Amino acid sequence: MATISPRLALLAGALALGVSSGANADATASMLANTCAGCHGTLGHSAGPASPIIAGINRVVFVDMMQGYKSGDIYSTIMGRIAKGYTDEEFEQMAEFFNTQEFKPAQQDYDKALVDQGAKLHDKYCENCHAEGGIPLRDPDTGEDAEDFYLLAGQWTPYLAYSMEDFRADRREIPKKMKSKLDDLLEKDGDAGLAAVFAFYASQQ
């Protein structure tokens, strides 16, 4: 049986990797993103309600979240351990990949009777930071992100609810402005108000 010397094997490996830098960058971004598919679905289209849809996610938000998980600044059950395996450059590559995927809202049940109230509460408490009902904010001419945004409209309700629980239980730092608005909402409308807001987001399918 013919054998291949270690030197030839290394040369073959080098040639296999010697593709153009652009093609290699694309392949790397895709490969990195594929490791997320188990929880977040193919191309970031999560089919499981506890894992958020990340297709179309804002680049800055994605990188900030991953860095927060990695450092431990953002509470998580598993993402902190996963994030430790990646560099900031790899976070940037994944952010670019997922940002360019089409956002597809979750197909989920919701209480239609709560939607109108939820829309009013969103306008009152959330719209200043989560504009246009919480949808992805794109420049209509370029398709690029118009500003930093979080995916709220069409996001899985259980994920939003779990995230809110983390904020309320002080497991995750909440921005001062958001805390003030949330406290006002809960004081006046209670948990039923939150449920209405979630129903409004879920209705945007």
TrEMBL record:
| Signal peptide bounds | 1-25
Which parts of the sequence bind heme c 1? C36, C39, H40, M79
Q: Does the keyword Ion transport apply?
A: no
Q: How is it modified after translation?
A: Binds 2 heme c groups covalently per subunit.
Q: Where is the Cytochrome c domain?
A: 23-102
Alphabetically ordered keywords of this record: Electron transport, Heme, Iron, Metal-binding, Periplasm, Signal, Transport
- The name on file for this protein is Sulfide dehydrogenase (Flavocytochrome c) cytochrome c subunit
Organism name: Thiocapsa rosea
